[in-house]
Amino acid sequence: MSQFAPLKNDLILRAAKGEKVERPPIWIMRQAGRYLPEYHEVKGKRDFFECCRDAEIASAITIQPVDHYDGLIDAAIIFSDILVIPQAMGFEIDMIDGKGPVFRDPLRSPEDINKINLKPDVKTCLDWAYKAITLTRTKLNGRVPLLGFCGAPWTLLVYMTEGQGSKMFRFAKQWIYEYTKEAHILLQAITDSLIEFLAQQVVAGAQMLQVFESWGGELGPIEFEEFCLPYLKQIASRLPKRLEELDIKEKIPLTVFAKGSWYALDDLCEAGYDTVSLDWTYRPEDAVKVVNGRRITLQGNLDPGIMYGSNDTITTKVEQMIKGFGGGKQNYIINFGHGTHPFMNPDKIEHFLKECHRFGLQ
Ligand code: 1CP
């Protein structure tokens, strides 16, 4: 018997598996975070990664949006970051207020690979992440499912080589175009670690998983096929085998979010994922056409910037979106096309969520 309480709301798991649902489930990328005053209260002056590593704090922050929007949100996502895999491989990262993550010693030439650990023991060195998941799932007490996640290999290669977010991707591009062989070695090593990391998150209690390829759109279609897709496919095909080895019996839905890679939607539908998450550059009707009856659930895709519009605008856009995805009673999960921003008004988000419920039930 499971150590956790039975789920009272399993809408998102049913939608991800392609079942008919009474309304489309909703969660929001970066739903825990800086736009919520209670986040700042709990975080205080503590370092970001210190909060992730403290199971009490991480679980409290994870549950904040579920409490704040009581009954309006259908999943929690563990408070952590995609950069914990680079940390496991030996990178030191500072989270700088107002700037984001900065790596102390990014990879600038193939020899630099020797400075990192390509085969970290992610079960041991990220044990804090699993403890946070187990505690959060216990505290959630079955209210909504808990999502785990990771960054995709190319996106993590970008951070490992650039050292931070980028506009020009000078170093990441040098890796793929000049140090191509070594870039593949790195991507493969990251992939191996990610599979174990995702599997251990499930062992700890994660009930659905998302892979964030946030920098996918920096590559053209041909490069996406070489540097993203094969690794995304490996994750989807090897993870279930690893979960089987770990004696996980239930099916764990897997989502891929490749921001900006609109050209890859057809390929992503064949990549082994249950759910494909879309940014706001897709017209929902067009995405549904590309899916063309395949057993894929789409997730997305409201421009988060719409939260800066009036409540009436939000209402109109929610209606358009849900209609565009065919009403949302099957194969659809509502989300933003990317994460919340720190400047957003929590009340606007509440209006968004309520309108999603209203139109989703129609
Ligand atoms: O509710 C949640 O979603 C919280 C969990 C979460 C997730 C899923 C956080 C907390 N980060 C992420 C994923 C993440 N981290 C991604 C993929 C999603 C996306 O594209 O946004 C990426 C690219 C990162 C890297 C990262 N971490 C950035 C972006 C840097 C850049 O390149 O511009 C930033 C700012 C962070 C820090 C971070 N992670 C999470 C939060 C709440 C914050 C802000 C930290 C703070 O100052 O309090």
TrEMBL record:
<feature type="domain" description="Uroporphyrinogen decarboxylase (URO-D)">
    <location>
        <begin position="147"/>
        <end position="163"/>
    </location>
</feature>
<dbReference type="GO" id="GO:0006783">
    <property type="term" value="P:heme biosynthetic process"/>
</dbReference>
<keyword id="KW-0350">Heme biosynthesis</keyword>
<keyword id="KW-0456">Lyase</keyword>
<keyword id="KW-0627">Porphyrin biosynthesis</keyword>
<feature type="domain" description="Uroporphyrinogen decarboxylase (URO-D)">
    <location>
        <begin position="25"/>
        <end position="34"/>
    </location>
</feature>
<dbReference type="InterPro" id="IPR038071">
    <property type="entry name" value="UROD/MetE-like_sf"/>
</dbReference>
<keyword id="KW-0963">Cytoplasm</keyword>
<dbReference type="InterPro" id="IPR000257">
    <property type="entry name" value="Uroporphyrinogen_deCOase"/>
</dbReference>
<comment type="similarity">
    <text>Belongs to the uroporphyrinogen decarboxylase family.</text>
</comment>
<dbReference type="GO" id="GO:0004853">
    <property type="term" value="F:uroporphyrinogen decarboxylase activity"/>
</dbReference>
<comment type="pathway">
    <text>Porphyrin-containing compound metabolism; protoporphyrin-IX biosynthesis; coproporphyrinogen-III from 5-aminolevulinate: step 4/4.</text>
</comment>
<comment type="function">
    <text>Catalyzes the sequential decarboxylation of four acetate groups of uroporphyrinogen-III (octacarboxyporphyrin) to yield coproporphyrinogen-III (tetracarboxyporphyrin) with the formation of intermediate hepta-, hexa- and penta-carboxylate porphyrinogens in the heme biosynthesis pathway. Acts on a number of porphyrinogens, but only coproporphyrinogen III can ultimately be converted to heme.</text>
</comment>
<protein>
    <recommendedName>
        <fullName>Uroporphyrinogen decarboxylase</fullName>
        <ecNumber>4.1.1.37</ecNumber>
    </recommendedName>
</protein>
<dbReference type="InterPro" id="IPR006361">
    <property type="entry name" value="Uroporphyrinogen_deCO2ase_HemE"/>
</dbReference>
<dbReference type="GO" id="GO:0005829">
    <property type="term" value="C:cytosol"/>
</dbReference>
<dbReference type="Pfam" id="PF01208">
    <property type="entry name" value="URO-D"/>
</dbReference>
<keyword id="KW-0210">Decarboxylase</keyword>
